Amino acid sequence: MTMLGSCPTRRLIPQKVKKLILCLFNAKIRYEQKRLVKEAENASPHPDDMKSRILAERARYLKESDKGVRHMCRIMEEFAKEERKEAKIEERIEMPQSCLKVEI
């Protein structure tokens, strides 16, 4: 009978096991992220009808609590500002182009 201490591959096995565990852990995280995104895309707008507990809790917070509603309002205001900036830039580009078009 051989002792584990005398096994020449004793040091290699834990490293391989660590790599395997890390790989499986990362794969599970990626799967969960993809699953949550997929559920979010197909989710009901009502938190009570959502299958994912995590998404339902977050949606409930953003829709029903005062802090969540204020947070969403801030995000939407920032989004609207960005859209207005982009619209102004597009307008600045389109206006000279329309002036340069000459119909014959």
Biggest pleated-sheet summary: none
* Structure classification: mainly alpha
- Say how many strands there are: 0
First CA to last CA: what distance?
Answer: 99 Å
Instruction: Give the quaternary arrangement of the chains.
Output: single chain
Q: How many helices? A: 3
> What does the overall shape look like?
flat
- Helical residue percent? over 70%
Radius of gyration: 27 Å
Mean pLDDT: 75
Report what the structure shows.
With 104 residues, the chain is mainly α. It is 75% helix and 0% strand. It contains 3 helices and no strands. It has helices at residues 12-42, 53-64, 66-100. The longest helix is centred in the last third of the chain and has 35 residues, at 66-100.
